[in-house]
Amino acid sequence: MNFELANIGRKIVGVGVDIVYLPRFAHLLEKHSPFDPRTRLTFDKITQKFMHEKERCYLSNLLIEENRSNPRLHEYMAGIWALKECSFKALSCCTSKDDLPPAQVLYAKMLYKTQNDEGVPKLQFDKMFEEKYPKYQRFSKSYEKFFSAHEFLVSISHDKDYLIALANLVERE
């Protein structure tokens, strides 16, 4: 199926964009290195604030296979951050911020980044959210219904010191 034809007529209900200065994340990795036992706990606390458990698992695998100077680590972290920021902005276009869960809940518990076989990023709603976090049950019920009818189309790009992410919240086909 031709991609353009598959997306014609889909209603966009929200748009968000975020830009990140990559040296900021490189500095974070220097200051709170996941490779240094003295700073690993702080590193883990930082990533728990904006990364879903599935993203942290992928990050752990990157840490095992990559060396300390590889830019993939800070690019991955920056990409997650930027996607979460722009997803919050896209959701805010069609939902009152008062109706959204706190940003940290949205970032670290509700949404997570994956990719398809071609490496195209995707942003997913955690279907286990309500089970794992009963405190947010009323949010979960409405968002599960919302995400069954809508999805994020996302893109990430980086060049030298900058990474940009875009999230379009669209009606599902």
Can you give me a brief rundown of this structure?
The chain has 173 residues and is α+β, with helices and mostly antiparallel strands. The chain contains eight helices and five strands.
Write the layout of secondary structure elements.
Layout: H1 3-7, E1 12-21, H2 22-31, H3 40-50, H4 53-65, H5 72-94, H6 103-110, E2 111-115, E3 121-125, H7 129-132, H8 137-149, E4 150-159, E5 162-171
Antiparallel strand pairs: 1-5, 2-3, 4-5
Number of strands: 5
Roughly how many Å is the radius of gyration?
A: 17 Å
CATH architecture: Alpha-Beta Complex
Unreliable runs: none
Strand content: 15-25%
Structural class call reads alpha+beta
Could you give me the name of the CATH homologous superfamily?
Answer: 4'-phosphopantetheinyl transferase domain
Calculate the mean pLDDT score and round it.
86
What overall geometry do the principal axes of the alpha carbons give?
Answer: globular
Q: Which CATH class is shown?
A: Alpha Beta
Quote the CATH topology.
Ribosomal Protein L22, Chain A
